[in-house]
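task queued by scheduler; priority normal; single chain, no ligands, no partner chains; default sampling; output format set to structure tokens
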Amino acid sequence: MPVPVDVIGRLTLVDPRQRTISIEARGPAVEVGFPDLGSAHQAYTAFTRRTDSNRAILLIQRELQRAGLALHFCVRGVRVAELSGDSRGNPLGRVLRLSHTDVRLRGVLRALLPW
């Protein structure tokens, strides 16, 4: 049974290369912001094998569903992907080894382009 959570907060992380990753929670959504696609990829590669990443995503998705939350992943302020309890994923997400994650092609392309 879902237990809806309403969250408010802000956290800033600095990786070893001095890149800032921001996590901001507002209501039913948590936005994870990366300065570039490289830092987003580096954060993801903590899971070295496909089965590890798929298992982690499914566990996260189950908890998001229980809490009624969604994760929005942004690069340079552009939303590139979303994971929620009811996400089914899309072909681009599967190609990028992000099962059950809705990856936005337009967002990824915009994040690749220079300002």
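post-processing summary
- The chain has a mean pLDDT of 86.
- The radius of gyration is 14 Å.
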